[in-house]
Amino acid sequence: MAADLGELLVPFMPTIRVPKTGDRVYKSECAFSFDSPESEGGLYVCMNKFLGFGREHVERHYRKTGQSVYMHLKRHVKEKTTGAAGGAIPRRRNGKVFLDLELNRDFNGEDYEYEDEAKLVIFPDHFEIPLPNIEELPALVTIACDAVLNAPSAYKKQEPESWEEEIQVSRHARSLRQLDNGIRIPPSGWKCQKCEMRENLWLNLTDGSVLCGKWFFDGSGGNGHALEHYRETSYPLAVKLDTITPDGADVYSFEEEEAVLDPHMSEHLSHFGIDMLQMQRRTENGHHTDNNPRPRVSEWEVIQESGMKLKAVFGSGYTGIKNLGNSCYLSTVLQVLFSIPDFQRMYVGNLQRIFDYSPLDPTQDFATQMAKLGHGLLSGQYSKPPMKSELIEQVMKEEHKVLNGHQQRGISPRMLKALVSRGHPEFSSNRQQDAHEFFLHLINLVERNSAGSENPSDSFRFLVEERVQCCQSRRVRYAQRVDYCIQLPAPIEAATNREELLAYEAKRKEAEENTRAPPEPVRARIPFTACLQAFTEPENVPDFWSSALQAKSAGVKTSRFASFPEYLVMQIKKFTFGVDWVPKKLDLAIDVPDFLDLSRLRATGLQAGEEELPDLMPPIVLPEDTRDNSMSSTDSPEIDEGAVMQLAEMGFPLEACRKAVYYTGNMGPEMAFNWIIAHMEEPDFAEPLTLPSMMDPLPSTSDSPMGATPLDNLPPEESIAILTSMGFPRNHSIRALKATNNNLERALDWIFTHPEEEESDGLSDMADTEPNDNAFSNMNSHSDSTLSPDRETSGPRVKDGPGRYELFAIISHMGASTMSGHYVCHIKKEGRWVIYNDHKVCLSERPPKDLGYIYFYRRLSSS
């Protein structure tokens, strides 16, 4: 028999591999469905790629790849028979077969016993070889099977790749000197102390200076002021401001010239008022350790409808999602998205096509994983009501459990979460996150993965018209930007119970001074009309540069809808930052209406009598103003010859080095080197530097708002894909990115202010006079209300229409901050409200419409 098995496996031996370090073995869940070893058909694990497949999908993988050998895993679970010894260890066959297997249900080891079964299956004949079978199988096959059976979970944190260097502790961390200068860093609103940069900012841990980082050839980064500060002061360590979390932050050592670890990070940051220990305490175990939890308890009860006998519902669209540990922010967003027809049609309606054309590793394909989760939620396959016999048995055993009703197990979003959070410092962690931020993150992924195909996020996309006015010259500028969500302020001063709030605050301060127990909290009640009014009011523009005055001035901005989306997402700005950097939630209730009419907020464009601001760009801000010197003589521009020689010694052509130093503003060899790398494939790379004479006309601002731009190479393909997925033509997108140093936000503004020259005069005239409302209406005369990606247009795809809406979903948050607590969502389906609380799905008795965090509205039909 041993010889027969050996001969049988000989043709397949080249396809059987032993898992290596770094290989992920998916033995707990199918790549296309939520089938597991506990499912009726078990799970098939490919012995070459180690992907798992349910019985329904393994044939597809065999046909696509020709891989014939799979390991079939099956777990048989049953309750212990009556009379079994209490506390006995569950009976288990082949004890090591499912080592580290993640179960799809929560078992009490004292109530259940299970048997594990494994075998090799050879396709297409389905020849089965039971395992273990050490004597009869070839040694390689035995080793491979044992490695698969004992492999750790595919979702455990992987060890760093061999080429990644381990970050070392800085030698300056222990003895770092910090100046006692009284500097306290606020939780927001930072900018470089030497220029206007608000991105890539670094906090020097010695003196508290906030300065920008290095400039990169793709236009991102900063002006190098943090490095310049080190050269002046020799203060060695800096932390990147937007990376600070309870777990740590990105630290760079200028003296060691590498990223480093700082074991004393908490102490060093607290010197500047950033309390990491307080942040950690507030997020520990996902709960907020507040001295006064009473308002939170009430909130938890109201939002979860505690104490009510809620009826569980089952079937298509009523499937719950398991909580993986602080993953409810993800679950609530996905439940709402897959209640929208566009997402259902894109991912579930195209299920077979997506699966058939999925890549060889479907676990890393966004469309496949979205289709998998959408099918799991909508098929009803994982949300079935209990059998009558099961209910009778439950009544006989434990009557008290019937009060809570039979609950489904829900599906696990583990595979999708691992994919969409990959590389993201927050979403890849096990901490609680902001559902609003995740919604925008997921929409961004949908955009990036929908280039050239139907884009379901079109339903959320709308245009905002921003009117900016110079307060001194009274001139205005109109611009449009794309958005997916409106953020409504919550003006506490407009609360209807203002006197009650003031009285509570006085009692609270008195109790605090006298060390007495605080009074019963009071929740602010704010009219929705006040929130809408606050949204429409003018706001100050920080660091406004007036092109009419050619100088900084006071400016105000108002926002209106240039188009209305099919689905309107509205976030209530309930969260703020305390001085300790911990996000805190305002305790308030807002009477959000079921029906909403925003028609009066439709943008009107340039009005009669208004004078536009000149279309000029502010001057370039450099660390040292070299503009006068460099242009004083067209024959001999000012060039740092020392930097030129450093680059030439690396082997680059001398003239190319001169051009690199000149075009990077004499800001050092490092920036010039980046320029060389970005331009070395160009045909005129080594030609002499030629400059326009003072009599030559300057380049048009439509081509280069920064004058002679050094970045005329092709922009990053990912940025191009994002713009084209919004409906902009590829050539126009490339021009916009080139003209704005590959800054996506500025590129969108550029597109709106520079319609394509090839378009008809009528469309150009309309773009000059109106904010394209008519164009958007024409777009939506299409049956699917979308534009083809290659259609000539100067605007993104939007589904414009009337601004009248009906509320259909609410995401609510319980807890003191976005870094802790819990999310649930309520969705209106078939005329009734349903509460989705992780895996539990029930009919809602009293949806908490006044305590929501994110509200979802759908447009009412015009009929």
UniProtKB/TrEMBL annotation:
Residues 772-788 have a biased composition (Polar residues). Keywords: Autophagy, Hydrolase, Metal-binding, Protease, Repeat, Thiol protease, Ubl conjugation pathway, Zinc, Zinc-finger. The active site is at C328 (nucleophile), H822 (proton acceptor). Residues 319-860 form the USP domain. Residues 757-771 have a biased composition (Acidic residues). Residues 638-679, 714-754 form the UBA domain. This is Ubiquitin carboxyl-terminal hydrolase. It comes from Poecilia reticulata (Guppy).
